[in-house]
Amino acid sequence: MTQQDWRKSVVYQIYPKSFNDTTGNGEGDIRGIINKLDYLNFLGVDYLWLTPIYDSPMNDNGYDIRDYYQINAQFGNESDLRELVDEAHARGLKIMLDIVINHTSTEHAWFEAARQSKESPYRDYYFFKSSEQGSPTNWESKFGGNAWQYDAQTAEYYLHLFDVTQADLNWDNPKVREALYKVINHWIDFGVDGFRFDVINLISKGDFVDSEDIGKEFYTDGPRVHEYIHEMNRATFGGKDLMTVGEMSSTTIDHCINYTKPERHELNSVFNFHHLKVDYKDGEKWTNEKFDLQQLKTILMEWQTGIYKGGGWNAIFWCNHDQPRVVSRFGKDIDEETRQQSAKTLAIVLHLLQGTPYIYQGEEIGMTDPHFTSINQYRDVESLNAYQTLKSKGYSEAEVLAILGQKSRDNSRTPMQWSADKHAGFTTGTPWIDVASNYETINVEAAMADPDSILYTYKHLIELRHTHDIITYGNIVPRYMEHPQLFVYERHYKGEIWTVVANMTDTVAYLPEDLAALSGDTIIQNGSVTEEYLEPYASYVISVEVN
Ligand code: TEU
After folding, report:
1. On the CB side of 52, how many CA atoms lie within 13 Å of its CA?
2. Residue 114: which pLDDT band, with cuts at 50, 70 and 90?
3. CA 480 – ligand 1 centroid, Å
4. Sign of the alpha-carbon dihedral angle for 150, 51, 374, 280
5. Cβ(382) – ligand 1 distance below 6 Å
6. Buried residues in 266-284 as b, exposed as e (16+ CB within 10 A)
7. What is the mean pLDDT of residues 139-149?
8. Residue 142, ligand 1, Cβ within 6 A
9. What is the pLDDT of residue 4?
10. Pick the catalytic residue: 80, 198, 231, 434?
């Protein structure tokens, strides 16, 4: 691959545990990724982001790191990773690692030393606080329960914004920052091409006082966060040919502009999640709310235009390992035709936006939520906690299962569907989590054999991004924001306008007159489009020269 502007890249996210198992132990591994590089190359993506592959007790599937320098034995060893990087590079593919530095596992040597005594030199690597009357503050963990855990050995509490086995690191301690920069530099020297930084906007904690909410306001985009990210940039990846993306929890457009404006030397790009909360009820995830299309459009367009005007850079995505499958969420998976139509239209709408698109494994073949029917099928710590909490609030088993079925992170963590073979060709053993029962129809082999498949729409969209600068650099103009069915926007660049028109619903949508009158070159089209209407989930992109 010739050197291209990183802004034109497309990233493919791999969740190694569920990608491809070569040992038969029911869990994916690094060799499994190596075996599928030709497929990824065929798809045409530029970067592969691997969720954490370091040594970990796996309470949060690798987001609880025990040793930043060791490879998780379940996934392989360092020479497997070496081979993966080399084999990827040989195909023009680049590798991004996931860096989890807001917290470590409580099994990390630093934490084990820290918890021994108040005098440990590692004590202030973390937040330990004494408190006479229970928890130091009323903050809640994002996985349920209070965010402080009492540690009997020294009779103090430590902070964990996530699982009780994920202790938050104290970034105000310069030794912590130095140790973490060393980790990043180690992997730069190893030869990786970029990093995804886990919940990086939570690293600077403010005052430790009670919250009227769950504590977010004290650590989200906290007081010294920009200073720390800038310092990290200068001490590690800054000025090198490495792509970076920060995962930003509950952030704002203004902060994200500052995180990504090139002249501030912080990060290349950011994930935000506001558009994925449109099926929450009053901010609550664990509900069965239908998604709100108007809200989805409004939020996406606010971020698109806001970040663009501010000179920042978005990551654009529908799916990741924490989110349900988009075709089951904002599309419909009730029958084959509707699944294919809606998956393609969702792909078109997303990939023509401004920013760096991310494809999560299986999204490119329209993988669906598995529609689990028993709590025994769930594995995720967050889902298992939510199950208990909802049950204790009086919800029936059926109600809780319906909610988990819509919101659980396990929806996206079921094994990658490679073929119609047993266990979808993912493993010869017993998969660690059930395969979705539709794998005989929905799998890579079938998708490759069908030129009309969702897979080819993704491939085409990636090619378009690589060959048409308007997708990367064009201005973005929202249209028909109030339309109850259509998602319409324009991209403007060097005398050309591309209009993206999508029917986001399962009923026919009639075109407003000026759209019906638009004539130009069709760049891509999905489903049946006439001069008057779009069939359910149909969409198209049309290019018009303006001077
Ligand atoms: O996620 C951060 C995060 O806050 C969410 O996406 C979270 O999973 C969701 O809010 C739960 O409702 C990152 C990782 O992507 C996630 O897998 C980890 O569990 C988490 O950080 C902790 O490291």
Report:
1. 25
2. very high
3. 34
4. positive
5. yes
6. bbbbbbbbbbbbbbbeeee
7. 96
8. yes
9. 80
10. 198
User: Is residue 416 within 8 Å of residue 427, measured between CB atoms?
Assistant: no
Q: Is 247 among the residues known to form the active site? A: yes
**Element spanning 113, H or E:** helix 109-114
Name the pTM for this structure: 0.98
pLDDT higher than threshold 90 for residue 213: yes
Cα–Cα distance measured from residue 256 to residue 308, given in angstroms and rounded to the nearest whole number: 11
Is 327 near ligand 1, meaning CB less than 6 Å away? no
142: pLDDT strictly greater than 50: yes
Expressed in angstroms and rounded, the spacing between residue 161 Cα and the centre of ligand 1 is 10
- The span from the CA of 193 to the CA of 310, in Å, is 26
Q: C-alpha 95: how far from its chain's center? A: 16
Please report the beta strands in 273-400, taking only residues with DSSP state E, as ranges in sequence order: 315-316, 356-360
Per-residue model confidence (pLDDT) at position 304: 98
Q: How confident is the model at residue 3 (pLDDT cuts 50, 70, 90)?
A: low
Distance 148 CA to ligand 1 centre (A): 18
Q: What does the pLDDT average to over 357-384? A: 98
Q: Is the CB of 162 under 6 A from ligand 1?
A: yes
Torsion, Cα 118 120 126 132, to 10 degrees, reads 0
What pLDDT, in 10s, does the model give residues 267-292?
999 999 999 999 999 999 999 999 99
